[in-house]
From TrEMBL:
Pfam families: CTP_transf_like. This is Phosphopantetheine adenylyltransferase. Its main location: cytoplasm. It comes from Enterococcus pallens ATCC BAA-351. InterPro entries: Cyt_trans-like (IPR004821), PPAT (IPR001980), Rossmann-like_a/b/a_fold (IPR014729). Belongs to the bacterial CoaD family. The gene is coaD. One of its GO terms (cellular component) is cytoplasm. Keywords: ATP-binding, Coenzyme A biosynthesis, Cytoplasm, Magnesium, Nucleotide-binding, Nucleotidyltransferase, Transferase.
Length: 164
């Protein structure tokens, strides 16, 4: 049977850290599905549609990765619909560990068949988060090194529109 994993996140925006986890995760499974979801507790920079398009463009070079979006549904239910038996998440720090542990245990409660799998963030990206990048972006700081090319270009376009 095909080993399918779902990597859920808000990806607002997708960072090089996310992309690194996706590239490494893709090697562990037959298929990796990136789920671009809404995080109700976070203010968004890009719309759901924009994020979906940017993630698709940024992972186009990885053969066994596809990207989906889903509104208003539990992650465990999305995984079941997709036939995914694994959830992939990244861990940068002890803070992420505590947060991810709560989510993973709750997901286990909701669906005992679903296994969460964690990849440690690569050291070069372990200080990178969408939230911090957003703070820097607001003040026009340089975040080029931490964004996949399509995301950086979309951001530049957004800046030009704001300046007009
Ligand atoms: P969420 O809003 O669900 O936390 P995010 O888009 O912020 O979604 O993150 C999705 C997943 O990617 C989380 O498991 C997060 O820990 C992981 N992640 C975020 N940034 C990095 C990074 N720099 N390196 C590795 N994993 C990361």
């Amino acid at each position: 049977m095909k080993r399918i994993a779902l990597f859920p996140g808000s990806f607002d925006p997708l960072t090089m850290g996310h992309l690194d986890t996706i590239e490494r995760g893709a090697q562990l499974f037959d298929e990796l599905i990136v789920g671009v979801f809404v995080n109700t507790s976070k203010k968004s920079l890009f719309s759901g549609e924009e994020r979906l398009a940017l993630v698709k463009e940024s992972v186009a070079h990885i053969e066994n990765v596809r990207v989906i979006t889903q509104a208003r549904k539990l992650t465990v239910e999305v995984a079941e619909d997709l036939g995914a038996k694994f959830l992939l998440r990244g861990i940068r720090s002890i803070k992420d560990y505590e947060y991810e542990k709560e989510i993973a245990l709750m997901n286990k409660h909701l669906d005992s068949q679903l296994e969460s799998v964690f990849l440690l963030a690569s050291p070069k990206y372990s200080h990178v988060s969408s939230s911090i990048l957003k703070e820097i972006i607001i003040f026009d700081g340089d975040v080029k090194d931490y964004l996949p090319k399509p995301v950086y270009e979309a951001l530049e376009k957004k800046r030009e529109q704001i300046e007009k």
